[in-house]
Design a protein that fits this description.
Blueprint (H helix, E strand, L loop, with lengths): L1 E3 L4 E5 L4 E6 L5 E5 L6 E6 L7 E7 L5 E8 L7 E3 L12 E2 L6 E2 L19
Parallel strand pairs: 1-7, 2-8
Antiparallel strand pairs: 2-5, 3-6, 4-5, 6-7, 9-10
Length: 123
């Protein structure tokens, strides 16, 4: 779970270069890859969103998916989310994130948002 406040940005540092991002509720967020590092995803909350949604991130040339619940919160905002290790989607194992109060988990659902055409940085 990732706690976000409207009007603020968060950075996701993944263990792999990012190929695709699937965002459940597109209108409340702006998503972009870092120009300097293709393992970094920038997520900006455009509005004060009120309902939870999720984001699914897929690695380059891989079938691995990383799923995060995005939860609105007016007092807690996570600026940086660092995924420390890979998830095993077949066994639905949980993976730790640097913030000790949150965990990443897998839920195979959402609509696709392609990042094709965006400039990629170093791998």
């Amino acid at each position: 779970k990732v706690y976000l406040t409207g009007g603020l940005a968060s950075v996701f540092l993944m263990p792999c270069p990012i190929e695709e991002v699937v965002l459940g509720k597109k209108k409340d967020f702006q998503v972009s890859l870092s120009d300097k590092d293709s393992k970094i995803l920038n997520l900006s909350v455009l509005n004060s969103f009120t309902k939870p949604t999720n984001i699914i991130i897929r690695c380059l040339n891989s079938t691995k998916f990383y799923v995060f619940d995005l939860l609105p919160n007016s007092s807690i905002h996570q600026d940086v989310v660092i995924l420390k290790r890979n998830l095993d989607i077949k066994n639905y194992q949980k993976s730790l994130i640097e913030d000790s109060k949150t965990k990443a988990h897998i839920e195979p659902k959402a609509l696709r948002v392609s990042l094709k055409g965006q400039k990629r940085g170093k791998k």
